[in-house]
Amino acid sequence: MANNFDVVVIGGGPGGYVAAIRAAQLGLSTACIDEWKNAKGGPAPGGTCTNVGCIPSKALLQSSEYFDHAGHAFADHGIEVGGLSLNLKKLLARKDTVVKQNNDGILYLFKKNKVTFFHGRGSFVRTGADGSEIRIAGATEETIVAKHVIVATGSSPRALPNVPFDEKLILSNTGALAIPDVPKKLGLIGAGVIGLEMGSVWRRLGSEVTILEALPNFLGAADEAVAKEAWKQFTKQGLSINLGVKIGTIAAGKNNVTVNYTDDKGAAQKAVFDKLIVSIGRVPNTIGLNAEDVGLKLDERGFIAVDDDCRTSLPNVWAVGDVVRGPMLAHKAEEEGVAVAERIAGQHGHVNFNTVPWVIYTSPEIAWVGKTEQQLKSENVAYKSGSFPFLANGRARALGDTTGFVKVLADARTDEILGVHIIGPMASELIAESVAAMEFRASSEDIARICHAHPSLSEAVKEASLAVDGRALNF
């Protein structure tokens, strides 16, 4: 096997494997190194997203939502379910099957696009203007040479100080996806995306869920109106969400975890949980790259320092995804991976951070793109706003899910769309129209004038755009 490549990608997550495929499509000899292993020790490319993140969590969210609907919502449709029971082992096995399908799909895409795959951990031996030497530590150790290197090593869950993950009682996202029995009492530290999604999964399956969040505001990154509606819906469903909490000591016993904390009023509290999920953010994976020895510069937070084009401090060494600045989102990593591959090939890759969508796959789903209303106010931007509730949408009524609304924010002078915020059914799919519109710098009038199928949930986006000008037709 040749050991000289035009491009070597370290990491096979969303940013890495997509970068490798795009580089190969552009005629560059390409290799990808990834160390993830499946249960049998074989290769499992796809990174955190595929193995213990986006993909398995969505599988569990879907299965748990079906279970919740069968127990509560089906009756409204005249579907009577008797003797409902949960086979958690099979539910988790299905999740594992979905993950494997994605692992195998990536390996197939490597083969299809003639990307050479190495199963192991990649690290720098040396770098220079003439290329980089990369050591691969796997079943055997070997060294390859690359003209260009793309680092896409992703991130790992952040643990609380002096509270390591054991993945049995104190869980990261990895353990949260594989709890073998539904815990009676489940605690979560962190009310972000992972906390809300995992809390929703296990609540639906029967857990009493308590979320402890240090920040005083709920979903501070989302539009305030969306956050307010989300709080209302999640607490109504049974999630106990405590804000302004200061975590104290955490002690793992034989079969439970005790958490001492101070609530938002300063009162000391103690809670005992069967399991505790900690989701307080993630840290970039740079350990093991040999970054210091080759002079790869890291910033003050431990991320690989890059310029706007994802170039690092080293010649012909690039970095993308969670290991660099910007939102830790799989689709952001993919866009950067494609852009870097195209830049290496002499093209002009492009990533617009202002149109990267955000999604929380709870029920109701939450999705947004662009500026929030509070951001526009703080920046003194004159804007117009239009909202439309799913309660007035015919398709939502037929689905039996009329929770939430669509909110469109547009420039008061030019009518250019500045942000779109959705909470409700299929928000993750509906946001794509608004992303495309913002990429083309469309106005709210543009969406308002586009014919949307009837009945469809997408009509709510059209109606919210009409509402910017005060002329919604169905509300």
UniProtKB/TrEMBL annotation:
One of its GO terms (biological process) is 2-oxoglutarate metabolic process. Its cofactor is FAD. Keywords: Cytoplasm, FAD, Flavoprotein, NAD, Nucleotide-binding, Oxidoreductase, Redox-active center. Its EC number is 1.8.1.4. GO terms for cellular component: cytoplasm. Pfam families: Pyr_redox_2, Pyr_redox_dim. FAD binds at K58, G122, T153, G154, S155, D322, M328, L329, A330, H331. It catalyses: N(6)-[(R)-dihydrolipoyl]-L-lysyl-[protein] + NAD(+) = N(6)-[(R)-lipoyl]-L-lysyl-[protein] + NADH + H(+). Disulfide bonds join C49-C54. Binds 1 FAD per subunit. InterPro entries: Class-I_Pyr_Nuc-Dis_Oxidored, FAD/NAD-bd_sf, FAD/NAD-binding_dom, FAD/NAD-linked_Rdtase_dimer_sf, Lipoamide_DH, Pyr_nuc-diS_OxRdtase, Pyr_nucl-diS_OxRdtase_dimer. One of its GO terms (molecular function) is flavin adenine dinucleotide binding. This is Dihydrolipoyl dehydrogenase. It comes from Oxalicibacterium solurbis. The keyword NAD applies.
